[in-house]
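pinned: reference chain
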Amino acid sequence: MIFQKEITNWYSVNKRDLPWRNTKNPYNIWLSEIILQQTQVKQGLPYYERFVTKYPTVFDLAKASEEDVLKLWQGLGYYSRARNLHTTAKHIAYELDGVFPKNHKNILKLKGVGDYTASAIASIAFNESHAVVDGNVYRVLSRYFGIDTPINTSDGIKKFKALATDLINVNDPGNYNQAIMEFGARQCRPKNPDCNSCPLTNSCEAHRRNIVSELPVKLKKTKIKTRYINFLVCFDKKGRTLIEKRTKKGIWRNLYQFPMIESNESITAESFNKLVLKHSFLKNLKFDYSLYNEKDKIHKLSHQHLFTKFWIIELDELPKDSISIKDLTDYPTPVLISNFIDEFNFETV
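pinned: its structure tokens
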């Protein structure tokens, strides 16, 4: 089969030397796949290296506290991945005696593992013939075969999975799966793919019809919600500050942040005093305040855009549950908060 042969030949010459490709250890492969979900290799690689250094086995990861895992994950986003990673590590270590499931069916039962991840682990670690279908694979297949079925519909998911299954090299599924993903990431790129040097150009349907830029087709996402968030960065004369742990369900669950007030619009310093006294623990305390950023810091998530302001609050004394400013970086925080901590000079307060 031309497609299969050209993909694997290209991969043998162009593949990147990545640490999880030099092992059949399912723990390392699983760890890399979870980290690389919705994350590019250049961003995920340092996290992978830090995780395998600190937690070289599934037992080490299982024994860690969730707070430590979240702290090491900080900056990668989609924190449910880290929570599921930790939960699954404990399940494997304590309920499966440290033995990783050896087939697609049982791997799929692990928390945080979907069909793509299970297929990747099963094929790479255990040589099972299960085709992977991720964003890169969707792009390669839709362009090569000229398929305009939307990839984020049930029909599209079924069609591309069936096609990928027909194309897989059953004798070497792990290598083929990695080859087609790498081909999509580096050769058949989302924007400006290098069709002139592509080994599949002569048989690519999208290239023949000049519709490469139009594929794959994806239905429009739901409307993005806009929220206006005001963080209260408090500190007192004893060098303490105040943070709170998010306990409700959501992407930042079990992470820490400064006390927060949500408003209906971006507010000014003139209207802040009224808002903070109405909704905050500060209403019975004497304090001075200033606005750190006149222009909103915009933090974009998959389903919402946060327009944020940081308000600097000075008090004589904070409540007993406050912490030393020196300990602030010990807590796992969303990247929005950690970036502010790095930017703001707490040593001068």
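why pinned: The first helix runs from residue 2 to 14. Residues 12 and 179 are 8 Å apart (CA to CA).
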